[in-house]
Amino acid sequence: MAGDHHHHDHDHAHGHGHHELPFWRKYIFSIDHKVIGIQYSVTALLFLMFGFILMMIMRWQLAYPGTSIPIVGKMLGESVAPGGAILPEFYNTLGAMHGTIMIFLGVVPMLVGGFGNFVMPLQIGAPDMSFPKLNMMSYWVYFMGGVVMVSSLFVQGGAASSGWTSYAPLSVTASVGQTWWLVGMVLLITSSLLGSVNFIVTIIQLRAKNLTMFRLPFFVWAQLVTAFLLLLAFPPLEAAGVLQLMDRVAGTNFFMPEGLVVSGVVLDRTGGGNPVLWQHLFWFLAHPEVYVLILPAMGIVAEVIANNTRKPLWGYNALVYSGIFLGFTSFIVWAHHMFMTGMGPRLAAFFAVTTMIISIPSVVILTAMIISLYKGAIRFTVPMLFALAFLPMFAIGGLTGLPLGLPLSDIELHDTYYVIGHFHYVVAPGTIFAIFAGVYHWFPKATGRMMNKGLGVTHFVISFIAINGVFMPMFFQGMAGMLRRGFDPTAYQANLHLMGLVKMTSWSAWLLGVGQIPFIINFFWSIWGGKRIAENPWDATTLEWAAPSPPPHGNFATPPVAYRGPYEYSVPGAAKDYTPQFTA
């Protein structure tokens, strides 16, 4: 009855709102979850491209140290790149801003703000989010955070340059760009908190009639767990950000130790703050954060795999419980990033054990997806190619993380290129491939048109080859002892024999950039020129395909009813190879 009551309220509210809204209310300051989802997606894709360009500039300096960068070198200006060759300080800025932009302005807004906002209400049969104005506010606060972050590149002394982790005391004594970074972070965190509250309430309150929790698509479960992670993990970093801001502008000493010597001068700081406290607060967010990056990606891949194998997901309950367990345990592993801080063997042993435990639910989810392929009538659509590539890439990312979770091997590998290889396998060929799978899969739902398959396959093949060329050599560079964050690898005799691998990584990165051109053309061309489709081009079973493509304001002509579970493919004795949730 509760479900009926909510739908009645919503229909009543929508009944008064069908007069045509002006352009700025409909597309700019919109409260429709679909428009907000598209705003998030397009903004996040632009930030991903920007963050990637920063990286490609860094790769030139690593492969050809001290030489003038072609094309962009002269555009950077004499203050940061005299003669087109970048300065070490600017290299640090590029590194810090690349990480920050990719994670906080690219991947999270895309997965949660983009796919979460657009797809989740449709998949639960809701007319909109629970709090539409809060939803709009969430996007605009994110947008302001992004503007603050990017404009910090133009302030005196440049943007933040203390790494994306902003470790004190380096970050407290850094140039003014760090202050902008902290203000930007506070805005971005606020945006995520506004969004996550909305997601939780929507999933719990606005499900369609008969859509019980265990009839939800796995994607919705992933979004629910992610929303809880954001809600619980972000406030400590928001607090820490404010504390670091106070250290910088108000002369407090939360993270500044006494007697610190900077460039031969003893700083006039008393109060005995603790730099390691910042690391604890930061990683207490940033480890759940990596599950914020991977859970919605797993959700997308699950949807695409079920749809393109034409069979139900294997072990749905195991997937759901693993996702929930992953969420809980992600809060008790953070200090495995900190084995080098001298925390002592007892504490290190605790975090090593929890790190081994948290690998289990990830393996359960991955295994369930691989078993789902067994005896499936696999359709090699473009979303499926990206989803299939996600599986081994995420596996490599996970397996290479295990030695970093054990103090003994981590001491050797910490702060080398091995670490970069490990987490990028999870977030680049892992999460970003899942994002591409989702874009190709739900593009027809958002626009009513298909993306071109030829361009899609070209995009996939180049990206798959190039992305492995970027990150695979890093494992070997790291095991050979090459340190990360180095401005000039040739400064160390020990790195000289690795320069071939460094050049291979750089050329692969530029090839990866070229490989995105077919995607950009495909994306924008298909909005107006793609093949028109009916509401369910993939013959899918979940509720979002009951709405027209693109869905109108209010989503569904009549409130949908869920008659069965989300993945009823190839049911024995059925007339078709799919039985949608929404048909009686």
Would you kindly provide a written description of the structure presented here, covering whatever features stand out?
This protein starts with a helix and ends in a 55-residue tail after the last helix. It contains 16 helices and two strands. The chain has one domain: Cytochrome c oxidase-like, subunit I domain (Cytochrome C Oxidase, Chain A), CATH 1.20.210. The radius of gyration is 24 Å and the shape is globular. The protein has 584 residues and is mainly alpha-helical. It has a two-stranded antiparallel ribbon with strand order 1-2.
CATH topology: Cytochrome C Oxidase, Chain A
CATH architecture: Up-down Bundle
**What is the CATH C level class, in words?**
Mainly Alpha
* Overall tally of structural domains: 1
Task: Please give the count of helices.
Answer: 16
Residues in β-strands, percent: under 5%
- Whole-Å distance between the termini? 19 Å
Structural class: mainly alpha
Tell me the helix content. Answer: 55-70%
How is the main sheet built?
2 strands, antiparallel
What best-fitting shape do the alpha-carbon axes yield?
globular
Q: Segments where pLDDT lies below 50 for 5+ residues?
A: 1-17
Succession of helices and strands = HHHHHHHEEHHHHHHHHH
Quick overview of this protein structure:
The protein has 584 residues and is mostly helical. The protein has helices spanning 2-15, 23-28, 33-63, 88-123, 132-151, 177-205, 218-249, 275-309, 316-329, 345-373, 382-405, 407-413, 417-447, 453-479, 499-515, 517-529; strands at 261-262, 265-266. It has a single domain (34-257, 269-546), classed as Up-down Bundle (Cytochrome C Oxidase, Chain A), CATH 1.20.210.
